[in-house]
Amino acid sequence: MKKIIFSLILMLTTIQLFAQDNGVEMADTLRSNGKIYVVVACIVIILVGLLAYLFSIDKRLKKIEKENSPKN
Length: 72
Description:
Layout lengths: L1 H18 L5 H9 L2 H33 L4
């Protein structure tokens, strides 16, 4: 019974949070100044760098696994 009451209380608090509509002023300001594209470009550069790093690690790991695999 305590779990049910606790979950109902949590659900009611989240419903109250959804009722607030503040809008994102920072995103509107960045969009109006054209700076949102700089933010998006930085995010894309970071993600591309991370993906390149992961692929290089994967390539090196496959090479090491190939060298250490027992030959039949």
